Amino acid sequence: MLVLRNRMLASLVLPPPSLLLRKPAPFSFCLPTRLSHSTRCRNPTQNASSASKTAQSPPMSDGARFVGTVLFVPPGVEPDEVTDEMVLPGSNIVVGPYAGDARIREVEFLKSSPRAKDCPKDDRPEFAILGRSNVGKSSLINALVRKKEVALTSKKPGKTQLINHFLVNKSWYIVDLPGYGFAKAPNAAQMNWSAFTKGYFLNRDTLVAVLLLIDASVPPQKIDLDCANWLGRNNVCCSFNVNIYKDGHFITCLLPQCQIQSLSWNFLPFFCAFQIPMTFVFTKCDKMKASKGKRPDENIRDFQQLIRENYRQHPAWIMTSSVTGLGRDELLLHMSQLRNYWDQ
Ligand SMILES: Nc1nc2c(ncn2[C@@H]2O[C@H](COP(=O)(O)OP(=O)(O)OP(=O)(O)O)[C@@H](O)[C@H]2O)c(=O)[nH]1
Ligand SMILES: [Mg+2]
Predict the structure, then answer these.
(1) Which ligand 1 atom is nearest residue 178's CA?
(2) Could you say which ligand is closest to the alpha carbon of residue 144?
(3) Confidence (pTM)
(4) Which of 190, 276, 185 is nearest to 227 (CA)?
(5) Which ligand sits nearest to residue 132's alpha carbon?
(6) Is residue 134 a part of any domain in this protein?
(7) Beta strands in 183-267 (DSSP E)
(8) Compositional bias (Polar residues) spans (predicted)?
(9) 217 Cβ below 6 A of ligand 1
(10) How far apart are CA 95 and CA 98, in angstroms?
(11) Complex prediction ipTM
């Protein structure tokens, strides 16, 4: 397994053109119950037929280490083709043929934007780093690009207050967003996160995926659960034809009353308007021994348990540490397959 894993991580080359020319299959999740999933629906017909195919596929081999694990199966991989070696360590992510050049050769801070309309206007794909203030968003960016201070970090929450675009290999962006929920921060550092970030999500057609960062060194936090739950319900929201953003205004919201009443977040407008592929990135997984409570893997399990009912299909997730580099290469490889698929 190690050899194969290393080969996957070390090869880091673009898949052969024949694979890239293949019609993209949807991302799916391989469950014991055989649920399937698509992230961004580029071709609903194809997704539907492939989903039913997934639903009929035979279960994975009983000998596989990840039996019972909810796997993220990328385009080009049939769930019943998945082997142990194809699953990235510390994650539920299967590596498929769209995984490509994950090396970061150069990175530059491009700009800070106070509003979405100030963000770079080009067609480069981008990944948004979302999460609670102090969860480690800026640190993760530094770890991914292997530079200490490309993104500014701080022990105090509320450090990142603008939309920061980092250009990688002159071809794609990582976007550091301000964190949500820093009630403990000084007043000066507080801001209307929702209004601020909403504009970003509504205006970025080039968004490949959202990486939602969750601190694995602490038990599940309500604010993260709220955020994750809303992202999960977004899939449901989309099927209600809700919410149209036009001329700078939200003009319709046809959600069932019960869902409107249960709103505790202002996520509804933008997450209902767009179906955004997401990955849970669990941070601070190095804090194994230091934490007094549960271990990060237990916190991760608890978190996933708590959000499960809001997800018909479970997202990709991965364990990381910006201190030890855990999950760094794996996350980059995953981002490359999302990117290459998006590029089709
Ligand atoms: N042990 C450990 N500490 C981390 C890790 N990632 C971040 N930290 C620490 O957590 C604190 C916050 O990190 P930041 O990267 O600034 O967090 P942020 O999410 O960007 O915060 P805001 O900009 O306020 O939204 C810093 O003291 C980091 O050193 C990690 O993987 N392990
Ligand atoms: Mg930050």
Answers:
(1) 25
(2) 1
(3) 0.74
(4) 276
(5) 1
(6) yes
(7) 207-215, 245-246, 249-250
(8) 39-59
(9) no
(10) 8
(11) 0.99
Do residues 192 and 265 lie in contact, with contact meaning Cβ atoms separated by under 8 Å? no
Decide: 135 in ligand 1 pocket, CB within 6 A: yes
Pocket test for ligand 1, best of 153, 166, 177 (most atoms within 8 A of CB): 153
* Structural domain contains residue 93: no
> Residue 63's pLDDT is what?
34
Do strands 172-176 and 126-131 pair parallel, antiparallel, or not at all (unpaired)?
parallel
H or E, element range at 52: helix 44-56
Q: Map tokens 């981008």 to a residue.
A: 126
The C-alpha R_g of the chain, in whole angstroms, comes to 19
Residues 162 and 280 both lie in one domain: yes
Does residue 16 fall inside a structural domain?
A: yes
The vertex-93 CA angle with 86 and 289, nearest 5°, equals 105
What is the residue range of 133's domain? 107-332
Q: Tell me: the pLDDT tens digits for 235-259? A: 433 222 233 333 333 333 333 322 3
- pLDDT greater at residue 262 or residue 267: 267
Residue bearing the CA closest to ligand 1, atom 9? 136
Question: Is any atom of ligand 1 closer than 6 Å to the C-beta of 134?
Answer: yes
Q: Is the dihedral of CA 279, 283, 286, 292 positive or negative?
A: negative
